[in-house]
Specification:
DNA Binding (I), subunit A, SH3 type barrels, about 25% helix, Nucleotidyltransferase, domain 5, single chain, alpha+beta, 7-stranded mixed beta sheet
Length: about 450
């Protein structure tokens, strides 16, 4: 993975290799500006007179995870990814928290009946999005803004994902029945691949050609609606024939119930993508860059043509105009939106009553929950070096979330700050882990 480089005035330069960054740090020509993602700052160079290549940030927006790829586009040469990341959103957590808050406020107002109703005194601005959806847009734009401050980005690319949810539920709809004009969307097959995880619903086989299959056979009254469709491999589709799913999976009734419940699941993820795609595009244009918009079909075509496996970050790599790509087998930074804490001052038991009060101080001995720390424990059961996100306690005994699990009860005296918490959790994985999940 390339190392991002800033000049002495914190202006972005072209990234360098890990070996060169190590030499610059060892010789005292650079200092560490940020740990994750790793950014260094040169002490003896400015951006004036430096040579720059075309660098583009590509996005594959999703309901739960957004893929990000920073690509260098040299003339007449294959594109080379400089940075791959996947941002996991916390929209569902935000929605659940707002539901709890609404219930608490409703209960309080019911105890004070003299207060006038408030459901009629709120106005929403044009383009308003629910907080759970606005979070997806804000998080994506925030990371694009960060990357443009650390890299000499010239342009952006966004996959404009579209799901026609009305037609997916009712294939016969046409003309004025839309009530919102003409709609365009993915083919039903592409939607089913996403919905069923690109694996056979009957045997969980992945990495093979998959076929659209009717759960209730058409010869027995089944329809072409998406709630009656699934994905199956060739052998399972042939073996099922026109049998009802209960007869075909008589030996595995739990799987049959799971398939039937998942087939009728709401199109919440597709609706979330539809609601945020134009808001995200407007925010990206407001950053002042040229924004290239491409369809999901083109992304899939590029990925299949180049033989690149299915992953959110690799989908982002294939967005837009792509001729050739090299060097995509590199670590992926997994970014998890963890939030910056809570205003809640108590913990509740299962009946909703407080069972203790939380400290009002966010910082304990100079540390705050979410900071990345390094703890060197010299002796005892927990002796060793532990790195990860810290959860502070008023007692001074902290918990550290490491890649191997949570280490509890470490003294603050053993901890050293690596990076202040910014509301995100970080981990790395290899793209080769997804090599078996090639899209059918």
């Amino acid at each position: 993975m390339a190392v991002m480089v800033l000049d002495k005035r914190k202006q972005p330069l072209m990234p360098c290799s890990e070996k060169r960054a190590r030499l610059l740090l060892d010789r005292g020509r650079a200092v560490v500006y940020r740990t994750v993602p790793f950014v260094i700052r040169l002490k003896d160079r400015t951006a004036e007179g430096s040579a720059f290549q075309d660098v583009r940030v590509k996005l594959d927006p999703g309901s739960k995870t957004t893929g990000v790829a920073v690509v260098r586009e040299p003339a007449n040469k294959p594109d080379q990814p400089l940075f791959l990341a996947e941002i996991t959103h916390r929209g569902r957590t935000i929605r659940n928290n707002l539901t709890k808050r609404r219930a608490q406020r409703r209960r309080r107002r019911s105890n004070r009946r003299y207060r006038p109703a408030r459901f009629n005194n709120r106005r929403r601005r044009d383009g308003w999005l629910p907080p759970s959806l606005q979070h997806r847009v804000d998080t994506t734009v925030a990371w694009v803004d960060r990357l443009t401050r650390w890299l000499p980005v010239r342009a952006l690319s966004q996959e404009l994902v579209r799901f026609d949810t009305h037609q997916l539920h009712n294939p016969e709809v046409a003309g004025v029945a839309y009530q919102q004009g003409e709609l365009f969307g993915y083919e039903v097959r592409e939607y089913l691949l996403e919905k069923w995880g690109r694996q056979c619903a009957y045997c969980d086989t992945a990495g093979v050609p998959l076929q659209v299959e009717h759960i209730q056979p058409k010869s027995r009254g089944g329809s072409d609606r998406v709630s009656n469709l699934t994905i199956a491999c060739g052998p399972c589709n042939h073996a099922k024939g026109n049998c009802p799913i209960q007869d075909f999976l008589a030996a595995d009734p739990d799987r049959a119930d799971r398939i039937l419940s998942q087939a009728k699941a709401p199109l919440a993820d597709a609706a979330a993508v539809n609601a945020t795609r134009w808001a995200l595009r407007s925010r990206l244009i407001a950053l002042g860059f040229d924004v290239e918009v491409a369809s999901g079909g083109r992304t899939k075509y590029n990925r299949a043509r180049l033989g690149i496996p299915k992953a959110h970050c690799l989908d982002a790599l294939c967005v837009g105009t792509v001729t050739r790509v090299r060097g995509w087998q590199q670590p992926v930074l997994c970014i998890t939106a963890a939030g910056r804490g809570s205003y809640q001052r108590t913990r509740l038991n299962r009946h909703g009553f407080p069972r203790g009060y939380l400290t009002r101080r966010k910082q304990i001995h100079g540390f705050q929950t979410g900071d990345r720390v390094k703890a060197v424990v010299p002796h005892g059961k927990k002796a060793g070096t532990h790195r990860g996100r810290v959860a502070v306690r008023a007692t001074g005994r902290f918990n550290i979330q490491t890649p191997d699990g949570v280490v509890q009860g470490l003294s603050h005296r053993h901890c050293t700050l690596i990076q202040r918490g910014d509301g995100y959790g970080y981990s790395f994985r290899k793209t080769q882990e997804d090599a078996g999940r090639v899209a059918a």
